[in-house]
Amino acid sequence: MSTLAMVQRGLRPRLIGMVAVVLSVFAFTLLAMWMSQSMDASVYDSLPDAMRALAGIPAGADVEVMAYAQMVGFMGALTTAAFAVAVGAHVVAGEEQDRTLPLILAQPVSRLRVAGARIVVLVAVVAIIGAGLWGLSLLATLPFDVDLGQAHLGALTLALGANALFCGSVAFCLGAATGRKGLALGVGTLVLLLGWLAAGLLPLTAATEGLVDLVPWAWYSRPEVLVNGLDGAALAKLLGGSVLLLILGVVGFRLRDVGTPVPLIPSLPRRRRTTRRLAAPRRGLTLTGLALRRHRTLFLVVAVVAAGIMGLLMGPMYEQMTAQLESLSETMPAAVFQVWGADDMTTPAGFYWAETLGVMAPVAVITVGVVPAVALASDERNRRLAMILTATTRTRLLAATLATQVVLVVAIAALTGLGIWGGARLGNLDLPAAHIAGAAVHLAALGLFVSATASLAAAASGRPAVATWTAVGVGVIGYAVNVAVTMAPRFEGWAVVSPFHWYGSARPLHNGANWGHVAVMLVGAVALWAVAHPLFQRRDLNR
């Protein structure tokens, strides 16, 4: 097998995902620019250049260009980096887990060539997405006659791509060196999310400001490339770190043993043992227990982040940053905070919502909720589902998947709430336990609703990519609509189409649970699961 053939084989199944990332960010940018035209531009025109730069408005640019900072610079960077992590974790470890990599290595091809082809796939994915974002970002100005001024869109997408390549290289390094896709995906996601969080929080106190230079995400975000252009030193750190990680991954891949493929047709005794285990779950783990065990590594990683870092540590950090947060709130207009999805950060509830419950916690619960649905579709794609269904029914299997989603989502939401409660106690913050519990209930309901969309997609299509991108689309579009509506209040009526409206508009951390909003999300989740059952029950399995 030639290197070119391996690269083509790696790129082909990811084309839809790449197109989805680029078009989604482009659509959100258009939406944000359209809605930002109804904003009161005088608020920003009166700001000094330094404050306009902080809001993401380059010199000589119209206010609408601020949408690039939010949609391309933040959402585009986060989505591209997450996609790169998924690719980096799968190109070696994922194919080894699917038992296809040993078959490739059985051909007259060296491990070095195989690893090199996988690296080319990762780099090509990032480059294609970056080029697509750059081209469509330029096109986004045409319908609105917007003056870009001194905006550096090309530099922004280059830095965005370098940041995504670094995150993807972390996942590639671990996946290639260990063969464990779950570990690679979990650590890569951890580096991505914690880097984004640390880059925003560490500069707020004098004691921790010096540490921000150690955070990879800060190498991308701190130079404010859209306004100031490329920072050569920061770009060199991202690219140099990526090269080092890729080399370490290749070295680890060459030195370790690779899992051997299982027979395409299992032996009769082995098939009987598998059938007996699935048919008699009372003797061991139930189907739900097996599914929970399958996802335990991801759950543990997300649980540590949700409870320990997003919850427990934020209380003491807020206590140390109170003066800086008050000064920032007095300097910047409230509309700027709304663009970034933040609330009044001078209160404990507002700070926790902006830093934990606004983005990070929803990503956590949605991730653990979507994974079981994707696993169900992956079993069908890899021809394992047909064998499993010889020992159980489709109804039981789908019910086990839904039960797994509920357990994982509720557990992460509860742990996040416990972490916030502990952080509030450590920081002596005035956050009532009832309000924290209400926010955790809203978080669980949001996670269940978005997870249910993934279950519906998996049940209807049997394709993991469809399940993944359905959930990503619902989550990202919902968040973007919710943020865009805050930029243009005259479109407030559209907020009801976003699950994030039902999640956060009642301000549950400030006021406690709004049971009507919770009911909307839960009823929606149940309805989606109900539709998924007949679709999964009646269709033919993919072959």
TrEMBL record:
Keywords from the UniProt entry: Membrane, Transmembrane, Transmembrane helix
One Gene Ontology cellular component: plasma membrane
TM region(s), chain numbering: 15-35, 72-94, 115-136, 156-176, 183-206, 226-251, 298-318, 351-376, 397-421, 433-459, 466-488, 515-536
Top-level division of the source organism's lineage: Bacteria
Protein name, UniProt field: ABC-2 type transport system permease protein
A GO term for molecular function: ABC-type transporter activity
